[in-house]
Automatic annotation (TrEMBL):
<feature type="domain" description="PAC">
    <location>
        <begin position="197"/>
        <end position="249"/>
    </location>
</feature>
<dbReference type="InterPro" id="IPR000160">
    <property type="entry name" value="GGDEF_dom"/>
</dbReference>
<feature type="domain" description="GGDEF">
    <location>
        <begin position="281"/>
        <end position="414"/>
    </location>
</feature>
<dbReference type="Pfam" id="PF13426">
    <property type="entry name" value="PAS_9"/>
</dbReference>
<dbReference type="InterPro" id="IPR035965">
    <property type="entry name" value="PAS-like_dom_sf"/>
</dbReference>
<feature type="domain" description="PAC">
    <location>
        <begin position="77"/>
        <end position="127"/>
    </location>
</feature>
<dbReference type="InterPro" id="IPR000014">
    <property type="entry name" value="PAS"/>
</dbReference>
<dbReference type="InterPro" id="IPR052163">
    <property type="entry name" value="DGC-Regulatory_Protein"/>
</dbReference>
<dbReference type="Pfam" id="PF00990">
    <property type="entry name" value="GGDEF"/>
</dbReference>
<protein>
    <submittedName>
        <fullName>Response regulator containing a CheY-like receiver domain and a GGDEF domain</fullName>
    </submittedName>
</protein>
<dbReference type="InterPro" id="IPR043128">
    <property type="entry name" value="Rev_trsase/Diguanyl_cyclase"/>
</dbReference>
<feature type="domain" description="PAS">
    <location>
        <begin position="124"/>
        <end position="169"/>
    </location>
</feature>
<dbReference type="InterPro" id="IPR001610">
    <property type="entry name" value="PAC"/>
</dbReference>
<dbReference type="InterPro" id="IPR029787">
    <property type="entry name" value="Nucleotide_cyclase"/>
</dbReference>
<dbReference type="InterPro" id="IPR000700">
    <property type="entry name" value="PAS-assoc_C"/>
</dbReference>
Length: 424
């Protein structure tokens, strides 16, 4: 046990940056406190002297633990204890106590170091860690070289990669191959220039399944302004995108044939007009009506009629290029947009193919059925320079074909040349 010299004590401890107090062991009364201790407590020295150490503890359980440890070991080393300031505000301290003698009086010598800022930082870090770990979004932290240093539980759940499988690897373990190199080049250019990026990314799970995520990337810089980490936060939006795709398809495609419906047809026709004006090209619009379809419906029923419409749609698709548009407007009316055509001979060949294929017998659920096609054609910009007029002219040409005997095609032009002789 060390004996303290009361005379030299004040000079040694008074200017210490650590709070120091000396209290009698028999009753806990404080007989010395340096200015740092008084500043921590927030009361003048005259008030501290004569008070008891127990008056400054926030938690009675912590105080009891300190007393128990002192009785058992005669000292306390670096205990984290909360004290109370004069205004009632608690603060964290690192407390060390040693038994000693103050003259002939047994005392406890206490060193009190304010660690409130450190504890606050620790609590914030713990809270942040809890938020990260319980977040629904996948979180990935990499070093400046891109090596994965940390991931959360949601990352594992979404990607299928365990903590051990991800740590130390590069984020390209998730690469799906769906994006061109330009995509990643633009992404990293934005990150380097602005410190952040966000967007949709196709990635691959551990199982090989491709999924869509909404990814946000941000750089973390140290005190010197250097990039210390990269933070990636992502959500699996596959289900949402599939729902959006389904809603879009329901709004834009015919449920029976799978062809674009009237709404999507009009949109594509508008796009075709803009593209043709921009590129100074031509395209043709074909209006197609199935003659005899009502008889098939009345004879065999609507189920067989639906099968015929589906087969007719398939034959139309076989008659044109993949870049062209085949749509079902309603009932037994179809349209075709032939993009970037040279002249009427090319258009006529396609129209003849359409008429010929639709004239072939249909075998439908044990029934043989026959229909014929009347096809009206209008050309942009030869016949009209806007979509609405082009539709009217193609529709008019189709009805002219019907009036001339059906099972044929015809262009919008002077009456004497309206209908092409298909079987001349």
């Amino acid at each position: 046990m060390t004996e303290l010299d009361p005379i030299g004590l004040a000079g040694v401890l008074e200017d210490s940056p650590i709070g120091v107090s000396i209290s009698r062991r028999r009753d806990g009364v404080i007989v010395f406190a340096n200015h740092t201790f008084c500043d921590l407590i927030g009361v003048p020295r005259v008030t501290v002297l004569g008070s008891k150490a127990r008056d400054y503890y926030v938690d009675d359980h912590q105080r009891a633990t300190v007393i128990k440890h002192m009785k058992r070991h005669g000292s306390v080393d670096h205990a984290e204890v909360q004290f109370r300031r004069s205004d009632g505000a608690p603060f964290w301290t690192l407390l060390t106590i040693r038994e000693s003698l103050f003259g002939t009086e047994p005392v406890n010598l206490a060193w009190v170091y304010d660690i409130t800022e450190r504890k606050t930082s620790e609590e914030r870090l713990q809270l942040a860690a809890k938020v990260v770990e319980t977040a629904n979004e996948g979180i990935m932290i990499t070093g400046p070289d891109g090596t994965i240093e940390a991931v959360n539980t949601a990352f594992t759940r979404i990607t299928g990669f365990s903590l051990d499988e991800a740590i130390g690897k590069k984020p390209n373990i998730l690469k799906s191959g769906r994006h061109e190199n330009d995509f990643y080049r633009d992404m990293w250019r934005a990150i380097l220039e602005t410190g952040q990026w966000q967007g949709e990314v196709w990635n691959r799970r551990r199982t090989g399944e491709v999924f869509i995520e909404w990814l946000s990337i941000a750089t973390v810089r140290d005190a010197f302004g250097e990039v210390s980490h990269m933070l990636g936060i992502f959500s699996d939006i596959t289900a949402r995108k599939e729902d959006e795709e389904q809603v879009w398809r329901q709004a834009n495609f015919d449920a029976l044939t799978g062809l674009p419906n009237r709404s999507l047809f009009l949109d594509r026709l508008g796009q075709a007009v803009k593209a043709a004006k921009r590129d100074k090209t031509r395209f043709a619009l074909l209006f197609i009506d199935l003659d005899g379809f009502k008889k098939v419906n009345d004879t065999f029923g609507h189920a067989v009629g639906d099968l015929l419409l589906q087969e007719a749609a398939a034959r139309l698709l076989l008659s044109v290029r993949s870049s062209d548009t085949v749509a079902r407007l309603s009932g037994d009316e179809f349209t075709v947009i032939l993009h970037d055509v040279e002249g009427k001979d090319e258009i006529g060949n396609v129209a003849a193919k359409v008429v010929s294929r639709l004239a072939e017998p249909f075998e439908l659920d044990g029934h043989d059925a026959n229909v014929q096609a009347s096809v009206g054609i209008a050309i942009f910009p030869d016949d009209a320079d806007d979509a609405a007029m082009l539709i009217r002219l193609a529709d008019r040409a189709m009805y002219t074909v019907k009036g001339a005997g059906k099972n044929n095609f015809g262009f919008h032009e002077m009456p004497e040349r309206l209908v092409y002789p298909l079987y001349a």
